């Protein structure tokens, strides 16, 4: 029985599945949008959203560190929490530049948003094997939408 089993296996062993998730997430964070199969997009969406949530927390800690004075005794605890969250994100990608981009550029856009950082748009079927393709993209923030209008 599959009670409470959430993750899709995508017909791959654990190590290959993890590498696939990390690769798709990396491309999504670097480019903002990717085209992949619907099954892969649905599988990577929770992974990406959890990373953005951690990055949001790190961004909030960084903001609070900048607002407080250097003499504040709680500032060291905030710094350690910020570093711990960044290291947790870095564990998946092993790329400090990407972690910096996620925490300082991407997560800041979603500070006021409670989840739903990505969207999946179905685009049709692939020609070779008729696999259903989807676009997985980061949701734009309201400030970006207002600039376009």
Low-confidence sequence ranges: none
Helix/strand-derived class? alpha+beta
Helix content: 55-70%
Tell me the domain tally: 1
Going by CATH, what is the homologous superfamily? Ribosomal protein L17
Please give the oligomerization state of what you see. single chain
Total helical elements: 5
Shape label: elongated
CATH architecture grouping? Alpha-Beta Complex
Strand content: 5-15%
**What is the class in the CATH system?**
Alpha Beta
Let me know the largest β-sheet.
3 strands, antiparallel
Mean pLDDT: 92
Tell me the series of helices and strands, N- to C-terminal: HEHHHEEH
Strand order of the largest sheet: 1-3-2
Give the end-to-end Cα distance, rounded to a whole number of Å. 50 Å
Q: How many extended strands? A: 3
Q: Radius of gyration from the CA trace?
A: 18 Å
Q: In CATH terms, what is the fold-level topology?
A: 50s Ribosomal Protein L17, Chain: A
């Amino acid at each position: 029985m599959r009670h409470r089993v959430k993750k899709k296996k995508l017909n791959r062993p654990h190590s290959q599945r993890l590498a696939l998730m990390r690769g798709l997430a990396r491309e999504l964070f670097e480019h903002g949008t990717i085209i992949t199969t619907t099954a892969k997009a649905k599988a990577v969406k929770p992974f990406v959203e959890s990373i953005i949530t951690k990055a949001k927390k790190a961004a909030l800690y960084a903001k609070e560190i900048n607002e407080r004075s250097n003499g504040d005794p709680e500032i060291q605890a905030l710094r350690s929490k910020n570093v711990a969250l960044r290291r947790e994100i870095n564990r998946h990608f092993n790329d400090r530049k990407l972690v910096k981009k996620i925490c300082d550029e991407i997560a800041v856009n979603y500070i006021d948003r409670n989840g739903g950082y990505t969207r999946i748009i179905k685009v049709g079927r692939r020609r070779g094997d008729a696999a259903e393709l989807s676009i997985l993209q980061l949701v734009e923030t309201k400030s970006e939408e207002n600039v376009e209008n």
